[in-house]
Amino acid sequence: MYEYVIVGGGVHGTCLANYLIDSGGYTHDELRIVDPRDALLASFATKARQCGMRTLRSSFVHHIDTEPFSLETFATGHGRGDELVATEDYPNRPTLELFLDHARYVIDRRDLADCHVQGTVSAITEPDHGESLRVETDERAFDTRRVVLALGLGPQPTYPEWTTPMPDDAALTHVWEEGFDPTAATAFDGRTIVVGGGITAAQLACRFAEQTHVTLLSRHDLETALPEADPQWINWGHIETHIHTLPAGSQARHDRIRNVRNDATIPPYVMDRLTDACNRGDLAVRIGEISCAHATGDGLLVRFADGRSTATVQVLLATGLEPAPDHPLVSQVAETLGLERGANGFPVLNDRTLAWRRTDGADSRVSVSGMLAETTVGPLARNVIGARRVAERLLTGCSESRGQRRTASEPAHLG
Ligand SMILES: Cc1cc2nc3c(=O)[nH]c(=O)nc-3n(C[C@H](O)[C@H](O)[C@H](O)COP(=O)(O)OP(=O)(O)OC[C@H]3O[C@@H](n4cnc5c(N)ncnc54)[C@H](O)[C@@H]3O)c2cc1C
């Protein structure tokens, strides 16, 4: 019987495991992280490289370790202080390689890889009526007292409607498709159109503009914002005042979060790269949409919504991921364990413990982290810092329930 099984070994799953082990309340033998990748954090590292990201958008105090200045100490201790990039009106931000090397250092220092089991979780069941959970992969099962779902941003890339009737070998790909290889895509002999209007599209366009001519096609004017939400959303006090006062599971919580997140924006340091590429003549920004496209022998023939068209192009989509609640495991868990889902299918959580509530109102043994926890953890839930907030509440909830267990068993023990 494990104490915790964390489903997903990305930024959140790894950070949570680090906090649980660091608290001294759990041993490696009591904890498992199940993830199909061959290494923890591999999903984030792959995505970051696929889109040509050079630096984190968040600051140097946002990382997977428990001590806020851990990354800065790591950087200066390894002679890499210059990889903390100065940013106007914002704390320094780490380069991607510094962030990842520090994360690997944390994983090694705490032997977190010892907790990692490779596998994809297909179901979670309750074999003994609420006393424990069973986490199932195709190969094995784990019995555990608690589960945390840390499944990431969304299950599948989002494809616009016009892409549906397209052969597999068409010159069309999505940046979040498994196996997307930016190096191979730069070898295309024709024009490249990057579709999207946020940071991922902008970074991808800048990367490609170093080798070929690129058109960045956005549905809306490009907008600039540095953080993904105001840093005051890091604080529980602010989250409790502005989110927890709204009814759990309500559309009002979503609306408030949508209104304060800087979604589909581009930070100034990426906007500067875009402007430089435009000035060099390597990149053009076009506001509009593709209405249809046909595969030809030498790329795509693309028609835009304004009626104009262009031939011999490859299209790279940076159009995001399907919503996190659409993950099949979320539906399976909710249906099998009788858990409550609110507006837009998000789990309804106990705001204090982050336990996913049963439809009868009681806390279940399942918690969530990352984007799935947004309606309780707020607009930065999906970000690196969101994992730290979840870890704090999990540890508070655990020490309370362990304390209760101890108190209940003490008389018999003493007797
Ligand atoms: C390119 C990029 C740059 C970003 N930059 C920043 C930044 O600078 N600052 C910031 O704060 N945030 C940033 N974010 C947002 C956020 O921090 C990252 O998306 C982060 O990876 C989220 O962590 P996660 O653990 O929720 O998801 P992931 O890191 O994607 O991990 C989810 C894991 O769950 C696993 N999984 C899914 N389903 C199953 C299953 N059924 N069984 C087992 N395992 C499963 C996946 O394999 C994956 O490893 C960025 C996001 C992206 C995509």
UniProtKB/TrEMBL annotation:
InterPro entries hit by this protein: FAD/NAD-bd_sf, HpyO/CreE_NAD-binding
Domain FAD-dependent urate hydroxylase HpyO/Asp monooxygenase CreE-like FAD/NAD(P)-binding: 5-152
Pfam families xref list: NAD_binding_9
Coiled coil: none
PANTHER family to which the protein is assigned, alphabetical: L-ORNITHINE N(5)-MONOOXYGENASE (PTHR38663:SF1), PTHR38663
Name the record gives this protein: FAD/NAD(P)-binding protein
Organism: Haloarchaeobius amylolyticus
Organism classification: Archaea, Methanobacteriati, Methanobacteriota, Stenosarchaea group, Halobacteria
